[in-house]
Amino acid sequence: MPLRLRFRALVLAMVCLCPAAMIPAVAAQGPSGERRESPLRGIGNDWCTLDRVLLVSTNIVRARLTLDDLGALERAASRNGGYVRIELVVLETLRAPGPGQAPDALTFFATPEGHPHGFHPTAPELRLHLGQERLLLLQRVGDRYFLADRFDGMSLVTPRDQAIVRERLERHERYAGTPLPDELPHASTVAGLVERVGGSDAASAEEAWLAILALGPDAVPALAAHLDDERQFVPGTIVLRAAPGAPAHALRVLRPELVCDALSIALGELCGDALGPQRADGVRPQARDSTRRWWLIRAHFALEALRESERRANQTRR
Q1: How far apart are CA 32 and CA 125, in angstroms?
Q2: CA distances from 2 to 9, 245, 295 (A)
Q3: What is the pLDDT of residues 224-252, one digit of tens each?
Q4: Checking DSSP bridges between strand 133-141 and strand 144-147, what pairing results, if any?
């Protein structure tokens, strides 16, 4: 995997604990003057970048962006990147951690066009949003708010694209409130393996863990159904290959405490989505609750994709 993509994946994983993710909307101009179309156009029903961004967005608001000192953006960009405080006039709150937790400002990392990490929106692109009403997907870190996505430009949504985000957000809420069905692909196989991973036989637990890692993406919903398993993870230590593009000898060594922590890591390996803590040792209960919710939503998307694949296969056979 190219270095830029590895950097991008690392930031998105960190965002599951801190910031991350996707969306501006005016067709901004790139360095050569070409128009950048909204990254939300053409989004279908399948799981996509927008869904990852929505998961990690702690606050979603409709607001007007204001900045008195327009030169602050240029000065930050001239240093190849710097933080600028953008005032927000919140008009509507779609998501907030609790009452009275609406953001009053955005901490924006202003970069020039052509920045080596490919950040979007850039400082020139953000200028097009100033004074305008936008839907903002934000990640709260400490007492500051950042754009949840800094690579695809999906964290600033113009009015013409807001319906797309609202529909997706409603779908997430519906999935989060809907338990997975009892009948799932590979349900019995997964149930047996999970039982052994938390059992008293260390050798059997290790064997079961390796079998879980060998399952395919079709097993994601069945694995997600066991994220309430808080027994001790008997194998103790997990050794995984590092991200694609890393040196062949690079390894990740993790020590999940509970079965649910290990299953979250396994789910990430099976479908390529790092949702929730990846360090796995010393995970707080609140983080586990968020991880369960995220994977429940992700599992419903996977289940819908499986059902659609089956429908298409049946139509082909007819």
Answers
A1: 13
A2: 11, 7, 27
A3: 999 999 999 998 888 877 665 666 667 77
A4: antiparallel
Please, which residues bridge with residue 88 across strands? 65
Burial class (CB in 10 A: 0-12, 13-18, 19+), 38: buried
- In the DSSP assignment, the letter for residue 227 is T
Residues 207, 213, 215, 216: what is their CA dihedral angle, to the nearest 10 degrees?
A: -170
217 and 151, same structural domain?
no
Q: What is the number of other CB atoms lying within 10 angstroms of the CB of residue 143?
A: 7
Amino acid at 287: A
Taking the CB of residue 9, how many other CB atoms lie within 10 A of it?
Answer: 16
Higher-pLDDT residue of 186, 36? 186
Are residue 68 and residue 93 in the same domain, yes or no? Answer: yes
Q: Which tokens hold the place of 313?
A: 């296969």
The whole domain housing 118 covers 3-176
Q: For 198-284, where are the alpha helices, taking DSSP H only?
A: 202-213, 220-224, 259-271
Q: What is the pLDDT of residue 81?
A: 93
Domain end among 143, 176, 209: 176
What percent of the chain shows pLDDT beyond 70? 83
What confidence score (pLDDT) does residue 42 get? 74
pLDDT of residue 242: 66
Instruction: Note the pLDDT tens digit of each residue in 147-175.
Output: 999 888 899 999 999 999 999 999 999 99
Among candidates 60, 59, 49, which has minimal Cα distance to 301?
Answer: 49
Cα separation, 69 vs 63, in Å, equals: 19
Is residue 244 in a domain?
yes
Q: Is the pLDDT of residue 185 over 50?
A: yes
The answer for residues whose C-beta is within 8 angstroms of residue 181's C-beta and 6 or more apart is 303
